């Protein structure tokens, strides 16, 4: 029989540095047991922040799953900055390359809601943009995508116009030599002056 889950907690500790404290006290688990297990599992991650999901059972036992470091941490690390821009719309806090973006996306892929590297790169690029970090080479890619979309729309519009022209020509050929009925409703200016 499966254990009854009492609570699921999401916390974040620095790798290899978890200590008993207020964030663990309210969970009802044996804190030294958790911190020892967490620190042993994350000691090789060089003090980076590690999100952890702790599942607490009715018998006070627990299991935990560690996640990858937050994207913002990896972006700051790659850009060599301590924090993002205060106003990401006007300030640039730093720059990362497209290769660094790909590395971060590959690292974070297991925790993202996609399994495609291109989608993961777009998610990480969005985080970078919100931090005021520019991804070199990404603007060109966005412009190329916009140009390709505009070209596809223009081709679609041209195709629609060609189809309408062909239909009009076919109608003209069908009606050639037939009488056309015209209703004239306009009055001459002389009649309007009377």
Description of the molecule:
Residues 10-62 form the Large ribosomal subunit protein uL11 N-terminal domain. Forms part of the ribosomal stalk which helps the ribosome interact with GTP-bound translation factors. The chain is an alpha+beta fold and 194 residues long. Among the domains are: 5-66, Ribosomal protein L11/L12, N-terminal domain (Ribosomal protein L11, N-terminal domain); 71-136, Arc Repressor Mutant, subunit A (Orthogonal Bundle). Helices cover 48% and strands 16% of the residues. The chain contains seven helices and five strands. Strands 1-2-3 form a three-stranded antiparallel sheet, with helices on one face. The protein has a two-stranded parallel ribbon with strand order 4-5. Strand 2 (49-57) and strand 3 (62-66) form a beta hairpin. Helix 3 packs antiparallel against helix 4 (98-108) and helix 4 (98-108) packs across helix 5. The mean pLDDT is 87.
Global shape: elongated
Fraction of residues in helix? 40-55%
Q: Taking strands numbered 1, 2, ... along the chain, how are they ordered across the largest sheet?
A: 1-2-3
Helix/strand order, N-terminal first: EHHEEHEHHEHH
Average pLDDT confidence is 87
Name given to the CATH homologous superfamily of the domain at 71-136: Ribosomal protein L11/L12, C-terminal domain
Protein name: Large ribosomal subunit protein uL11
Subunit structure: Part of the ribosomal stalk of the 50S ribosomal subunit. Interacts with L10 and the large rRNA to form the base of the stalk. L10 forms an elongated spine to which L12 dimers bind in a sequential fashion forming a multimeric L10(L12)X complex.
Domain Large ribosomal subunit protein uL11 N-terminal: 10-62
Domain Large ribosomal subunit protein uL11 C-terminal: 67-135
């Amino acid at each position: 029989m499966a254990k009854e889950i009492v609570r699921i907690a999401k916390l974040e500790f620095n790798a290899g540095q978890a200590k008993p404290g207020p964030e663990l006290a309210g969970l009802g688990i044996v804190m030294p047991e958790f911190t020892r297990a967490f620190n042993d599992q994350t000691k090789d991650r060089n003090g980076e922040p590690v999100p952890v999901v702790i599942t607490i059972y009715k018998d006070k036992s627990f299991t935990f799953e560690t996640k990858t470091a937050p994207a913002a941490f990896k972006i700051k690390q790659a850009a060599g900055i301590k924090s993002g821009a205060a106003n990401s719309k006007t300030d640039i806090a730093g720059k990362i390359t497209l290769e660094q973006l790909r590395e971060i996306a590959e690292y974070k892929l297991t925790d993202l809601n996609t399994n495609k590297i291109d989608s993961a790169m777009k998610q990480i690029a969005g985080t970078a943009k919100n931090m005021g970090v520019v991804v070199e080479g990404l603007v060109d890619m966005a412009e190329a995508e916009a140009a390709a979309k505009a070209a596809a729309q223009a081709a679609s519009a041209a195709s629609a116009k060609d189809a309408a022209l062909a239909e009009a020509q076919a109608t003209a050929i069908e009606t050639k030599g037939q009488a056309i009925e015209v209703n004239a409703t306009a009055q001459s200016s002389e009649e309007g002056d009377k």
